Amino acid sequence: MESTPLHTEFSQLLAPIHKFLHCATPAAWIEQARQPEYLSLLLVDHANCEMKAAMSAHSLVRRYCLPKEKRRLLPNLDFYKSLEALPDKAEVLGKHVLTEDSQRVFDELEKNALLVKMVRLIQEELHHFEQVLEIMTARGIEYSTLSASRYAQGLLRHVRTHEPAAVVDRLIIGAYIEARSCERFARLAPHLDEELNRFYVSLLRSEARHYSDYLALAADYSDRDIGERVAFFGAREAELIQAPDEVLRFHSGVPAG
């Protein structure tokens, strides 16, 4: 069968991600996640993941784009909804109307590559969060918090404690989380209903870019080649994905039992 342009595009997007990840999502996870009785749980966890991704990027902006004594200036995530990221100019500008407090933040923020990429990522993750909530509301699924899987903490426990090693490790972890999300969206989409299939496929472009942005930033911040750390976290990530998990989550391992 001849490939469509869309199929070819996504194959090209996913190829480097498959190469980057040290293992594919186990078939047992797909088999459980595709079952209708788990759909509500996965959508709630997906919404939580989008919000956590935005919060993690916000934390990076706060820590690495503001001097320590000015970090209190950066407000909550609503701040980013009134920003426009212009990556081609490597700066972040406000819209036409800014509050005095927002202007102070703009004046203090260090305009660097991390800021530009993280602001764009935060805006997209918040948009995805709202999209998931809309889908849930239409299906009568109540939004709630869930216990987290051991995935993110299992990676973060290996972060080094000195700089710039700490930020390099966090950025590499961000790359793996985004890459795994992208891979799972692609693997799970064909097993879902038409609306969710289209939605998950629509996320592939942004998730693939997030992975590459994180990896590029890690290389920029490091004072040495990051290949060894990338391989280290790739091995840890694969261990978590292939190990048994008692609960099903978007980044959980093989379903236990």
TrEMBL record:
Look up the domain of life of the source: Bacteria
- Spell out the CDD domains in the cross-references: MiaE (cd07910)
The family database entries (InterPro entries) matched by this protein are listed as: Ferritin-like, Ferritin-like_SF, tRNA-Hydrxlase_MiaE
Which Pfam families does this UniProt record tie to the protein? MiaE
Q: What is this protein called?
A: tRNA isopentenyl-2-thiomethyl-A-37 hydroxylase MiaE
